[in-house]
Fold this protein.
Amino acid sequence: MPLLEVSGQPIHVVDRGADAAGNAGDAVVFLHAFPLQAAMWDYQLEALEETHRCLAIDLPGFGQSPGPTDPGAATMQGWAALVDGVLDQLGIADATTVGSSMGGYLAMALLRHHRPRVRQLVLADTKARADDPATAHRRTAQQDELWGGAEVGSLAKGRVEGLLSGDSMSRPELVDYVHALAEGATPEGWIAALEAMKGRPDSMLLLRQADVRALVVVGELDRLAPIAEAMSLRSLLKSELVVIPNVGHLPNLEDPLAFNDALVAFLAGSPPSASTSASTSE
Protein backbone atom coordinates (compact mmCIF):
# COMPACT_ATOMS: atom_id res chain seq x y z
CA MET A 1 0.00 0.00 0.00
CA PRO A 2 1.13 3.65 -0.41
CA LEU A 3 2.96 5.27 2.47
CA LEU A 4 0.71 6.67 5.17
CA GLU A 5 1.61 10.03 6.65
CA VAL A 6 1.22 10.40 10.40
CA SER A 7 2.17 13.73 11.98
CA GLY A 8 4.41 14.50 9.01
CA GLN A 9 6.23 11.13 9.11
CA PRO A 10 5.70 8.78 6.13
CA ILE A 11 5.09 5.25 7.36
CA HIS A 12 5.11 2.03 5.34
CA VAL A 13 2.55 -0.53 6.48
CA VAL A 14 2.08 -4.08 5.21
CA ASP A 15 -1.70 -4.57 5.28
CA ARG A 16 -2.92 -8.07 4.46
CA GLY A 17 -5.94 -10.18 5.22
CA ALA A 18 -9.05 -8.26 4.13
CA ASP A 19 -11.13 -10.08 1.55
CA ALA A 20 -12.44 -8.57 -1.68
CA ALA A 21 -15.43 -7.09 0.15
CA GLY A 22 -13.20 -5.43 2.72
CA ASN A 23 -14.14 -7.87 5.48
CA ALA A 24 -11.56 -9.41 7.78
CA GLY A 25 -11.22 -11.06 11.12
CA ASP A 26 -9.82 -9.35 14.18
CA ALA A 27 -6.79 -7.21 13.48
CA VAL A 28 -3.25 -8.11 14.53
CA VAL A 29 -0.49 -5.48 14.43
CA PHE A 30 3.16 -6.60 14.37
CA LEU A 31 5.99 -4.41 15.68
CA HIS A 32 9.50 -5.36 14.63
CA ALA A 33 12.75 -5.90 16.49
CA PHE A 34 15.87 -3.74 16.22
CA PRO A 35 17.45 -3.38 13.72
CA LEU A 36 15.05 -5.30 11.48
CA GLN A 37 11.86 -4.33 9.65
CA ALA A 38 8.25 -5.37 9.03
CA ALA A 39 9.36 -8.16 6.70
CA MET A 40 10.58 -10.14 9.72
CA TRP A 41 6.91 -11.05 10.24
CA ASP A 42 6.29 -12.55 6.77
CA TYR A 43 5.87 -16.09 8.11
CA GLN A 44 3.30 -14.90 10.63
CA LEU A 45 1.34 -12.84 8.10
CA GLU A 46 1.19 -15.83 5.77
CA ALA A 47 -0.14 -18.01 8.59
CA LEU A 48 -2.83 -15.56 9.73
CA GLU A 49 -3.99 -13.61 6.69
CA GLU A 50 -6.90 -15.96 5.93
CA THR A 51 -8.45 -15.38 9.35
CA HIS A 52 -7.18 -11.97 10.50
CA ARG A 53 -6.35 -8.55 9.16
CA CYS A 54 -2.58 -8.38 9.59
CA LEU A 55 -0.57 -5.17 9.79
CA ALA A 56 3.23 -4.98 10.00
CA ILE A 57 4.69 -1.50 10.44
CA ASP A 58 8.12 -0.30 9.33
CA LEU A 59 9.25 2.15 11.98
CA PRO A 60 10.88 5.39 10.74
CA GLY A 61 14.15 4.67 8.97
CA PHE A 62 13.56 0.92 8.74
CA GLY A 63 12.37 -1.13 5.78
CA GLN A 64 10.44 1.10 3.41
CA SER A 65 9.72 3.93 5.87
CA PRO A 66 11.87 7.04 5.29
CA GLY A 67 14.11 8.11 8.14
CA PRO A 68 12.99 10.65 10.73
CA THR A 69 13.98 14.30 10.31
CA ASP A 70 15.08 14.58 13.95
CA PRO A 71 16.37 11.17 15.06
CA GLY A 72 17.77 12.48 18.33
CA ALA A 73 14.26 13.38 19.47
CA ALA A 74 12.74 9.90 19.02
CA THR A 75 10.80 8.40 21.93
CA MET A 76 8.71 5.29 22.46
CA GLN A 77 5.79 7.58 23.28
CA GLY A 78 6.21 9.31 19.93
CA TRP A 79 6.38 6.00 18.11
CA ALA A 80 3.26 4.83 19.96
CA ALA A 81 1.50 7.92 18.62
CA LEU A 82 2.56 6.87 15.10
CA VAL A 83 1.07 3.41 15.60
CA ASP A 84 -2.09 5.00 16.98
CA GLY A 85 -2.26 7.24 13.90
CA VAL A 86 -1.79 4.28 11.54
CA LEU A 87 -4.65 2.39 13.17
CA ASP A 88 -6.81 5.50 13.04
CA GLN A 89 -6.19 6.05 9.33
CA LEU A 90 -6.96 2.42 8.57
CA GLY A 91 -10.18 2.47 10.58
CA ILE A 92 -9.03 -0.10 13.14
CA ALA A 93 -10.31 0.52 16.65
CA ASP A 94 -8.13 -2.04 18.41
CA ALA A 95 -5.84 -4.94 17.65
CA THR A 96 -3.88 -7.78 19.14
CA THR A 97 -0.44 -6.17 19.42
CA VAL A 98 2.58 -8.41 18.82
CA GLY A 99 6.00 -6.95 19.64
CA SER A 100 9.42 -8.54 19.34
CA SER A 101 12.34 -7.13 21.36
CA MET A 102 12.30 -3.38 20.55
CA GLY A 103 8.80 -3.94 19.18
CA GLY A 104 7.88 -5.22 22.63
CA TYR A 105 9.05 -1.94 24.16
CA LEU A 106 6.82 -0.15 21.66
CA ALA A 107 3.88 -2.44 22.45
CA MET A 108 4.26 -1.48 26.12
CA ALA A 109 4.35 2.20 25.16
CA LEU A 110 1.14 1.71 23.18
CA LEU A 111 -0.41 0.07 26.23
CA ARG A 112 0.75 2.97 28.40
CA HIS A 113 -0.37 5.85 26.18
CA HIS A 114 -3.12 4.39 23.97
CA ARG A 115 -4.66 1.61 26.07
CA PRO A 116 -7.90 1.27 24.03
CA ARG A 117 -5.89 0.25 20.97
CA VAL A 118 -4.50 -2.89 22.63
CA ARG A 119 -7.07 -5.68 22.64
CA GLN A 120 -4.53 -8.39 23.50
CA LEU A 121 -0.77 -8.36 23.95
CA VAL A 122 1.96 -10.71 22.74
CA LEU A 123 5.49 -9.96 23.94
CA ALA A 124 8.34 -11.91 22.34
CA ASP A 125 11.94 -11.86 23.59
CA THR A 126 11.66 -8.50 25.30
CA LYS A 127 11.85 -7.07 28.81
CA ALA A 128 9.93 -4.68 31.04
CA ARG A 129 12.97 -3.09 32.66
CA ALA A 130 14.45 0.20 31.45
CA ASP A 131 18.05 0.25 30.23
CA ASP A 132 20.72 0.02 32.90
CA PRO A 133 23.50 2.65 32.70
CA ALA A 134 25.91 0.35 30.89
CA THR A 135 23.37 -0.48 28.17
CA ALA A 136 22.41 3.18 27.75
CA HIS A 137 26.10 4.09 27.46
CA ARG A 138 26.60 1.45 24.78
CA ARG A 139 23.66 2.79 22.79
CA THR A 140 25.05 6.32 23.01
CA ALA A 141 28.43 5.08 21.77
CA GLN A 142 26.73 3.49 18.73
CA GLN A 143 24.89 6.74 18.05
CA ASP A 144 28.18 8.62 18.18
CA GLU A 145 29.65 6.20 15.64
CA LEU A 146 26.73 6.78 13.30
CA TRP A 147 26.82 10.55 13.73
CA GLY A 148 30.50 10.26 12.86
CA GLY A 149 29.80 8.51 9.56
CA ALA A 150 29.90 4.80 10.47
CA GLU A 151 28.00 2.57 8.05
CA VAL A 152 24.92 0.70 9.18
CA GLY A 153 26.18 -2.47 7.52
CA SER A 154 29.26 -2.69 9.73
CA LEU A 155 27.20 -2.32 12.90
CA ALA A 156 24.49 -4.67 11.65
CA LYS A 157 26.96 -7.50 11.10
CA GLY A 158 27.89 -7.69 14.76
CA ARG A 159 24.29 -7.23 15.85
CA VAL A 160 22.98 -10.18 13.83
CA GLU A 161 25.46 -12.54 15.46
CA GLY A 162 23.85 -11.76 18.82
CA LEU A 163 20.29 -12.22 17.57
CA LEU A 164 20.60 -15.81 16.41
CA SER A 165 21.41 -18.99 18.32
CA GLY A 166 24.58 -20.93 17.61
CA ASP A 167 22.67 -23.57 15.65
CA SER A 168 20.94 -20.95 13.53
CA MET A 169 24.27 -19.28 12.73
CA SER A 170 25.11 -22.50 10.85
CA ARG A 171 22.10 -21.93 8.53
CA PRO A 172 23.52 -19.63 5.83
CA GLU A 173 20.17 -18.85 4.25
CA LEU A 174 18.73 -17.65 7.58
CA VAL A 175 21.84 -15.65 8.45
CA ASP A 176 21.80 -13.96 5.04
CA TYR A 177 18.08 -13.19 5.39
CA VAL A 178 18.48 -11.58 8.81
CA HIS A 179 21.47 -9.59 7.53
CA ALA A 180 19.33 -8.31 4.66
CA LEU A 181 16.57 -7.29 7.07
CA ALA A 182 19.07 -5.43 9.25
CA GLU A 183 21.01 -3.71 6.48
CA GLY A 184 17.85 -2.10 5.10
CA ALA A 185 17.86 0.54 7.84
CA THR A 186 19.12 4.11 7.50
CA PRO A 187 21.61 5.70 9.91
CA GLU A 188 18.83 8.06 11.03
CA GLY A 189 16.60 5.07 11.78
CA TRP A 190 19.31 3.44 13.90
CA ILE A 191 20.01 6.64 15.81
CA ALA A 192 16.29 7.17 16.47
CA ALA A 193 15.78 3.59 17.61
CA LEU A 194 18.74 3.75 19.97
CA GLU A 195 17.42 7.04 21.38
CA ALA A 196 13.91 5.67 21.89
CA MET A 197 15.20 2.50 23.55
CA LYS A 198 17.60 4.14 25.96
CA GLY A 199 15.01 6.74 26.96
CA ARG A 200 12.11 4.37 27.57
CA PRO A 201 10.70 4.16 31.10
CA ASP A 202 10.55 1.05 33.25
CA SER A 203 7.28 -0.78 32.52
CA MET A 204 7.09 -3.24 35.41
CA LEU A 205 4.37 -1.34 37.28
CA LEU A 206 2.50 -0.73 34.03
CA LEU A 207 2.33 -4.45 33.29
CA ARG A 208 1.49 -5.39 36.87
CA GLN A 209 -1.55 -3.10 36.71
CA ALA A 210 -2.52 -3.94 33.12
CA ASP A 211 -5.95 -5.41 32.47
CA VAL A 212 -5.03 -7.15 29.23
CA ARG A 213 -4.94 -10.76 28.12
CA ALA A 214 -1.35 -11.55 27.21
CA LEU A 215 1.10 -14.14 25.93
CA VAL A 216 4.86 -14.11 26.53
CA VAL A 217 7.14 -15.97 24.11
CA VAL A 218 10.89 -16.48 24.41
CA GLY A 219 13.59 -18.43 22.62
CA GLU A 220 15.20 -20.96 24.95
CA LEU A 221 18.71 -19.79 23.99
CA ASP A 222 18.03 -16.04 23.90
CA ARG A 223 21.02 -14.17 25.34
CA LEU A 224 19.64 -10.64 24.95
CA ALA A 225 16.29 -11.10 26.70
CA PRO A 226 16.70 -14.48 28.41
CA ILE A 227 14.13 -16.74 30.00
CA ALA A 228 14.49 -14.97 33.36
CA GLU A 229 13.16 -11.76 31.75
CA ALA A 230 10.29 -13.67 30.16
CA MET A 231 9.39 -15.23 33.49
CA SER A 232 9.26 -11.74 35.00
CA LEU A 233 6.89 -10.63 32.24
CA ARG A 234 4.72 -13.69 32.81
CA SER A 235 4.51 -12.96 36.53
CA LEU A 236 3.66 -9.29 36.00
CA LEU A 237 0.98 -9.98 33.40
CA LYS A 238 -0.29 -13.26 34.91
CA SER A 239 -0.02 -14.66 31.40
CA GLU A 240 1.01 -17.83 29.62
CA LEU A 241 4.70 -18.30 28.85
CA VAL A 242 5.83 -20.23 25.78
CA VAL A 243 9.48 -21.21 25.50
CA ILE A 244 10.53 -22.13 21.95
CA PRO A 245 13.28 -24.76 22.22
CA ASN A 246 16.72 -24.46 20.66
CA VAL A 247 16.38 -20.92 19.27
CA GLY A 248 17.68 -17.50 20.20
CA HIS A 249 16.32 -13.95 20.11
CA LEU A 250 14.20 -14.34 16.96
CA PRO A 251 12.02 -17.44 17.43
CA ASN A 252 9.51 -16.27 14.84
CA LEU A 253 12.29 -16.56 12.23
CA GLU A 254 14.34 -19.42 13.65
CA ASP A 255 11.34 -21.70 14.26
CA PRO A 256 8.32 -20.03 12.64
CA LEU A 257 6.12 -23.14 12.89
CA ALA A 258 6.45 -23.34 16.67
CA PHE A 259 5.99 -19.58 17.03
CA ASN A 260 2.94 -19.63 14.79
CA ASP A 261 1.41 -22.54 16.70
CA ALA A 262 1.65 -20.54 19.93
CA LEU A 263 0.28 -17.37 18.32
CA VAL A 264 -2.63 -19.10 16.58
CA ALA A 265 -3.59 -20.90 19.79
CA PHE A 266 -3.51 -17.63 21.72
CA LEU A 267 -5.65 -15.84 19.14
CA ALA A 268 -8.13 -18.73 19.25
CA GLY A 269 -8.34 -18.50 23.03
CA SER A 270 -6.71 -21.90 23.51
CA PRO A 271 -3.77 -22.74 25.80
CA PRO A 272 -0.40 -23.05 24.03
CA SER A 273 1.12 -26.41 23.19
CA ALA A 274 2.23 -28.31 26.27
CA SER A 275 5.52 -29.18 24.59
CA THR A 276 6.63 -25.55 24.57
CA SER A 277 4.66 -23.88 27.34
CA ALA A 278 5.01 -23.07 30.98
CA SER A 279 1.82 -21.69 32.45
CA THR A 280 1.17 -19.87 35.68
CA SER A 281 -1.70 -19.95 38.12
CA GLU A 282 -0.66 -16.70 39.83
